[in-house]
Amino acid sequence: MSSQTNESLVLAPVSTAHGEITLPGSKSLSNRILLLAALAEGETRISNLLNSDDVRYMLQALTALGVKLTLSDDKTECLVQGKGGRLSYDGALTLFLGNAGTAMRPLCAALAASDGEFTLTGEPRMYERPIGDLVDCLRATGADITYLGEESYPPLLIRGSRLRGGQVSIRGNISSQFLTAMLMAAPLCEGDLEIVVEGELVSKPYIRITLDVMQRFGVTVDNHDYQRFVVRAGQHYRAPGDIMVEGDASSASYFLAAAAIAGGTVRVHGTGAASVQGDARFADVLEQMGAKVAWGDTWIEVSRGQLKGIDVDLNHIPDAAMTIATTALFAEGSTAIRNIYNWRVKETDRLSAMATELRKVGATVEEGDDYIVITPPARILSAEIDTYDDHRMAMCFSLAAFGDSPVTINDPGCTAKTFPGYFELFDRLTR
Ligand SMILES: O=C(O)C1=C[C@@H](OP(=O)(O)O)[C@@H](O)[C@H](O)C1
Ligand SMILES: C=C(OP(=O)(O)O)C(=O)O
């Protein structure tokens, strides 16, 4: 790392990545576990909680809702006194949820099934991220939700009530978080809840995370091939006692890709063959490109191979897929990443942002509605990378430092959404 201001970070060219990293906790698991711990009967002791913006928004929301939480000084351990049911609040409450999809969507459903009047707000980008499919589904079982701005987008006014249950359908083609939110709120309904997924379900492995966490809190879901789900009434979340958050598999992708590109070996600890996170399978994609990969139950190790371009559908790992886009800069031939339409509705329009910034370093890029094809340049150009308030844009483009020119990352602080210490670890690994 050669120089940093608040506005930008200049990464000097690097040529090796070597070492071991213990991953911070998974964002997806941290926010699910916190919410279910709050709804559960009993006390949950969480370890390896992620300390980042997205998790802080969930913690602040639960605290405002009257959930008793005790955090360790480093904010990675948390004791939660469960409410033993709905998160009811006497009066009106406004909750600011930043740009955290894993807070906005699940809290929307859980609060629709609680008592109180809740206004859910967030950063301007949150008001451009759709939530209509979830709201429609909640309304079909009795929820009272009003859009305070544009139809189908936050901010929302939720007048909590008893949700009936019954049979509902939900569209799955924009975000799996809508289904996750319905599933997690299902035990708060009065009757059985049957959820039928309409059309394609994107980001499917995240549903496995949801079902796994619900199971650990004592609630069983009948899963009919990820198309129909039934949650029987009369089930209640019960605190599991101690629960440890797996390391974040999406965060692992940058370090593993660094090893695949540079000479050296990197081992990440905290996710592996036994991981519940779909993004652990990112390593398979690196292997397909030519990297050498070894697995343990709780670790993944990657070392360099001769990388070649591939043509892949990465709908199942949309977050880690961004890391493949910048890894492609170092492969022989073109790489096509397909079926990633929902990149457009995340922290920024990631398809457009990725195409623009890859071109700055010299790549030839074809941007389709739901795919991107990247042809690497003969030599990576020195460039100033804009990050669009998107933590993953910042982290992905750190890999451009494996070219032989410096790369400037604008607004490196945006990694705080999921990985505040990212650039320090990248520096340590590549020194
Ligand atoms: O459920 C989750 O924890 C997540 C699901 C994915 O979103 P989509 O289902 O909207 O693709 C992913 O991109 C996001 O970072 C986390
Ligand atoms: C899409 C992401 O976040 P969110 O949970 O806000 O959807 C992400 O972390 O890449």
TrEMBL record:
The lineage of its organism: Bacteria, Pseudomonadati, Pseudomonadota, Gammaproteobacteria, Pseudomonadales. This is 3-phosphoshikimate 1-carboxyvinyltransferase. Residues 15-424 form the Enolpyruvate transferase domain. The active site is at D319 (proton acceptor). It is found in: Cytoplasm. Monomer. PANTHER family: AROM/DEHYDROQUINATE SYNTHASE (PTHR21090), PENTAFUNCTIONAL AROM POLYPEPTIDE (PTHR21090:SF5). Pathway: Metabolic intermediate biosynthesis; chorismate biosynthesis; chorismate from D-erythrose 4-phosphate and phosphoenolpyruvate: step 6/7.
